[in-house]
Design goal:
The chain has a single domain, classed as Up-down Bundle (Methane Monooxygenase Hydroxylase, Chain G, domain 1). Helix content is 60%, strand content 0%. The chain contains 12 helices and no strands. It starts with 8 loop residues before the first helix and ends in a 5-residue tail after the last helix. The mean pLDDT is 92.
């Protein structure tokens, strides 16, 4: 029972620095909830990035089973992130105002991991990197991602190879959000009209839709949680708060996979 000479559970997980990282800046009871909610979300996002970047590499190599496993895992990660909002929503506006001023200009909008997830999935906007200029290493990392094909770009390469077609080069703009393409939608329609002949691509498409489904739910829950706690006040980081988050609900990561459904 003595672990003086052996690695313990706490040693392996580095629990001392993790459990000592909740540095409250006020005496408000609910600040602990707020900090842990966001710290755990960042840990889940770190895992999501680990899975997404490896899934992209696997897909580029044609390793479909490995890709599907990791994409399914990312969808479940976002299910966990969704459940976390349920805990945060137990905090009332009165409780939040007790420590909101102590947040300064910090905001979830500044999460570089969230931004990187969006970039990996294909929702890219170079202007969004500006909030990270004070951290050159993070700014550089995001810039590198904008020089790499997104996960959806790799999926489109796989789709083009399956059907022996070529998409307009504009479809692969690296530093801009992906725009819906009629020729890409038509290609996915071919896959869905004969799943048996293109089963791997059919399953890939459904895994991507499943992932975006959970991602959309996360965004929606974010909006409703913020509105429930602060209403339509401006966000701490200077964004328009709920108005900005509602606008983000309109963003489609894989638009052709959604639009195609109405054409089958």
């Amino acid at each position: 029972m003595s672990f003086a000479k052996y690695m313990s559970y706490g040693d392996y997980l580095s629990l001392d620095p993790i459990l000592g990282a909740q540095n409250m800046r006020s005496d408000a009871h609910d600040e602990m909830l707020f900090i842990i909610q966001h710290q755990t979300s960042e840990l889940w996002m770190r895992l999501a990035l680990h899975e997404l970047t490896t899934a992209r590499e696997a897909l580029a190599q044609g390793a479909f089973p490995k890709t599907f496993k990791m994409l399914a895992r990312v969808a479940r990660i976002f299910e966990q992130l969704n459940s976390a909002w349920d805990v945060l929503r137990t905090m009332t506006p009165s409780e939040y105002t007790q420590f909101r001023d102590d947040l300064g200009a910090s905001s979830g909008f500044q999460s570089h991991q969230y931004r990187l997830i969006e970039f990996v999935l294909g929702n890219r906007n170079r202007a969004m990197m500006k909030v990270h200029e004070h951290r050159p290493e993070l700014h550089h990392m995001l810039g590198q991602e904008l020089e790499t094909k997104s996960l959806y770009h790799v999926a489109l390469d796989t789709l083009a190879a399956e059907l022996d077609v070529t998409f307009d080069p504009q479809t692969y703009r690296l530093d801009q959000p992906h725009q819906a393409s009629t020729e890409v939608m038509d290609a996915w329609t071919v896959i869905y009209r004969d799943p048996g002949a293109h089963w791997a691509l059919y399953e890939l498409a459904e895994k991507l839709v499943d992932l975006e489904d959970y991602f959309r739910r996360w965004r929606f829950n974010h909006v409703t949680t913020v509105e429930r706690i602060i209403g339509f006040k401006r966000g701490t980081g200077g964004t328009s708060g709920v108005k900005y988050l509602r606008k983000m609900l309109e963003v489609e990561l894989f638009p052709e996979l959604w639009k195609m459904r109405g054409h089958l």
